[in-house]
Design goal:
This protein is of the alpha+beta class. It is built from four helices and four strands, in the order E-H-E-H-E-E-H-H.
Length: 92
């Protein structure tokens, strides 16, 4: 399994942009490999993300490990602060 970040390459929403940037910065800083899925390039991927998470109006960024939904930015940030990022990402 691998960490997958569902993101968007084009957004005018500064909050989404900053959250996406922070996730990537943290993962790169910790040497955690991840795959980016750009939702603006493929509507089917957005629908897939929402279906797998079970949340019909889900917005990026969202974090998965393979097909398993890990959580949103706030959950990511909470896990980072608690020192449980590996568990949150289902890497342990």
């Amino acid at each position: 399994m691998s960490v997958i970040i569902y993101m968007t390459s084009t957004t005018t929403n500064r909050d989404i942009y900053h959250k996406q940037s922070r996730i990537k910065l943290v993962l790169e800083g910790k040497g955690i490999k991840y795959e980016e899925v750009d939702l603006c390039k493929d509507k089917e991927k957005r629908d897939y993300m929402r279906e797998k998470a079970g949340i019909p109006d889900l917005l990026p960024p969202q974090i998965f490990n393979g097909d398993t939904y890990c959580g949103d930015f706030q959950s990511f940030d909470d896990a980072l602060e608690a020192g449980t990022l590996q568990e949150f990402l289902l890497l342990k």
